[in-house]
Amino acid sequence: MATLISIVLAAVLTNNFITAKTYGICPFLGVSKKTSSAAGMGIAVTLVMLIATLVTYPIYTYVMVPLGIEFLEIIFFIFIIASLVQMLEVIIKKISPSLYNAMGVYLPLITTNCAVLGVTELVIGDMSAILGEGVSMNLGWAALYALFAGLGFTLVMIIMSGMRERLNYYKLPKAVAGFPIAMVTACFICMAFMVFSYISL
Amino acid sequence: MNGKSFFKSTTFKCIIALLCVLLVSGIFLTIMNSLLAVTPEEKFNRAINKIYGKAVKTETISDIKSFNETSPNGSIEEAYKVKEDGNFLIKSTGYGGYDNGTVTCWVVVVVNGGAVKGIDKVIIDSNKAQSYIDRVGDKALSQFSELYEDGIVYTPSLITGATVTGTKNAICNAVNTALEFANVKCGNVASEAKKLLENIANIYGDTKVSVYGVDEKGEEKLIEETDETVKGFIETPVTSGKATVESLYKVRFNDGKNDVLHYVVSSTGVGGYPDGSGTVTCLTAFAIENGAISRIYKVTITANVGQSYIGNIEHLDKYPGADYIEGEDMNFVTSGATMSSTAINNAVNGAMRYIEANIANLGDITEDGDNNEGGEENE
Amino acid sequence: MNKYKKITLDGLIFQNPTFILVLGTCPTLGLISSAFSAMGMGLTVLVVLLLSNVIISALRKVIPNEVRIPCYIVVIATLVTFARMFLEKFVPDLYDSLGGFLALIVVNCIILGRAEAFANKHTVAEAAVDGIANGLGFTVSLTLMGIICEFFGKGSLFGLQIMDFKIGMLATPAGAFLVYGLCIAVFVYIVDGIERARRVKANKLARENMLKEAA
């Protein structure tokens, strides 16, 4: 139970992918102009993160480690993620065209999203600080972490898009408009999230 | 599509291209991996070298467990002896941090000639629940090596420049435990007399001095560096005023013109921080002329109990500057450390009273040992 | 030669991957709290980018168009894995300070972006120059921001303690966002100025030529 709470808190608040780890910044800055698209992107990323972890973690633990080919992890992982995204796109298109219209457009972008590769690399690394003493990593925890890290990502995406929608009302100098003001906005969100580091279990 | 046309189709070309790229990559990386793989041993050496600052060979120091059983404030995790220079590399965890957390440090203990001589560096390895550990910077950590002296027990108030008492406490505990462990492993918690002699040598700096004490038979003797049987002129500590006088040595040296006689007295004064119960131990050198004290040559602090602000004391050079009047106390104060100052005054004055009372017996140095007037003093 | 000068200037200034195109933001924001790791990341990307550009440009006629992206990814992933092994073996300090971002070079948009937009359409020499120019543009930008963040955030430069004064916030992701945003604003302002001056000069020249012709 303690591990569960710890993982959820760490993934969503204290070690949030965007505000603490700065993973997945490209979509964070690129697709956060409207709340609807930000939410769509967030959900798509969460889904891919979860599925990618569910696939890569067992492959790494039960195939690559016994074979002694851990050093090929980057190639394997990026390949798995790329194929997964392709497959997902096809499946969603077939099952639910409306869902495809809502988030399918973001799927191709996700292959080069560091949040996805980041989470698959993280869960095979040293996670003892988050899991707590005496708890070893397994597929369940890995999937849970990936899921909540994705939800944390979505949360910050939505907050950011809300702030950027407001920013549209102001006329800004050319040098500041666009990325600079978005980054300063992101700075405020990060500062707000820094408060969560006071949470300790 | 028949077989022949398949081999000419784009699909086939794509598959072949992709497979070739994958195969070449895989072979290249496999070769590179076997060439560049980092063995666990190399990783360990690297970690050690990073701490030590240069490439060294180490051997593991065993028997950590029995030490940890009796260590109240910390525990030793790992300990290594550096083969090149004999220094100890100790990973120790200090208890009593903020929120009952701990701090684990690497401590490089300088060992020379089988005895602990100092701390080279302290590096924080990890911590539990110390949210503000970042505030303990290099400046604070370097103070451990700067402040080192024989028998020192680090306390959080000794280390300045970091405002996190709890975390500092845990670090101090870790360092103290490491020092204690190193001392135990060196096998010689240096004898009190030996330490005292070193301190006497420090008073006179570069000037070569001859130190005299008494041997087992009560005869006055020149103390050689290695001579452990010769002791000071006081066998059991004597109370004098508000101080305990522990030992007295006669010192002779040439000040450039004449041979000069000094008495060096180690005394512990009470009245220190916090409520008058703390103590300060001083080593005071008195210049002796014509069978009486002529002035104080130097006062140094060798130890203390509970004096957090002892580092602030800056009036020690006022004692040699003051005129000596028989029977009168010398009292100087450093503001900000008034209670420690009191304890130092008590120690110096106690030593002074003791010499005044016993100078007739102590007398000059009788080199050949035919005169026994400087025998044991028991009161 | 003018062609190479244009490629270089584009990579360094007018199409600077960090400040103008805003690519490769994750490692930038994650590592500029220390000048050393920022520069290390920049140089690693420079080498990977140079090699990937050269390899992809050399293979551009061999690889079928349909599977080019997977092939590029495999090439880049191989190079990154190699870079990781190399750093772990020979530069362990940098390996430690880059942490997870080292593996994430694979998904750094600059590298795939240059492969797709430049290397597969140009000769090996041009691709190499492009790789160096873009890598240098990335390295210089990162080092610059690393120096700013580390100096004000930690009071040190390349790990060397200089002063006690520090604004701790600048060494956190929040500070990285702030410094990055402000640097982009300043850079865009300057580059805009240069481009406007160029345009004015070109217009003036054109007008003078027209007047001459008219005369």
Describe the structure.
The complex is a heterotrimer of chains A (201), B (379) and C (215). Helix content of chain A is 72%, strand content 0%. Chain A is built from ten helices and no strands. In chain A, α9 (139-167) packs across α10 (179-194). The longest helix of chain B has 27 residues, at 10-36. Residues 368-379 of chain B have low confidence and may be disordered. By secondary structure, chain C is mainly α. In chain C, a hairpin with a 2-residue loop joins β1 and β2 (160-161). The relative contact order of chain C is 0.17. Chains in contact: A-B, A-C, B-C. Chain A binds chain B through residues 69, 71-72, 75, 197-198, 200, and chain B through 22, 25-26, 29-30, 33, 129, 131.
Distance between the terminal alpha carbons of chain A, to the nearest Å? 12 Å
Principal-axes shape call of chain A: globular
SSE succession of chain B:
HHHEHEEEEHHHEEEEEEEHH
The major pleated sheet of chain B works out as: 7 strands, antiparallel
The level of helicity of chain A is over 70%
| Parts with pLDDT < 50 across at least 5 consecutive residues of chain A | none
Mean pLDDT of chain B: 79
Oligomer: heterotrimer
C-alpha Rg of chain A (nearest Å): 18 Å
Distance between the termini of chain B: 118 Å
Radius of gyration of chain B: 31 Å
Q: Could you say which structural class the secondary elements and strand pairing of chain B correspond to?
A: alpha+beta
- Total count of strands of chain B: 12
Instruction: Kindly state the percentage of residues in helix of chain B.
Output: 25-40%
Biggest sheet architecture of chain A: none
What's the helix count of chain A?
10
Name a few traits of the molecule:
A: 201 residues, mainly alpha, C: 215 residues, two-stranded antiparallel ribbon
Question: What does this entry show, briefly?
Answer:
Chain B is 33% helix and 28% strand.
